[in-house]
Amino acid sequence: MIILDVFLLLALLIFLVVGIFSGEYGNYVAGTATWLVGLCVLDLLLGVPVFSTIYDNPLLIAVYGIIYVGIGGLYSAFIRWPRYLNYHSEIIQSEHKKYAAKYPEGTLEDFMESSNYNDFKVSRNKDRLANWSLMWLFLAIWDLLNRPARFIYKRVYNAFGSLFTRIGKSVTKKIITKY
Length: 179
Known about the structure:
Helix content: over 70%
Number of strands: 0
Shape: flat
Low-confidence stretches: none
Structural class: mainly alpha
């Protein structure tokens, strides 16, 4: 029984890691494959009647699917997409400067319709947006685990960095004034 529990825990951990990786770095094909493999493992290896439940309740599953993708769309629109654009803010600013130099009368709206902004148009990021909508559950779990850890790491690093800087300056002053 303990071996089965360890196997289940390991399988869940692998599923989460693969799901997070697919969400962060993959596309919707990798995300779909992750979900399908996870459902197959549940049904075929662990005996959870996933496919018979889907077969017996197609309307309910469709409603759940629409709700899931709807939540994923909101997550993508309000969390992931703004974060992606902010992450690439230096590139966007650089492209805007190039555009403004070439078209001084151009508006911000004109820039966002220009070829300088192509990489950040929704039409060029359909795969990314679809993937985020599909894998939002994994990405939200990752955000909940990762963001607080990075916040704590940065605060501790800054605190120790300041401490070591002060100690280093103090010791250096003593060394310099000693001679």
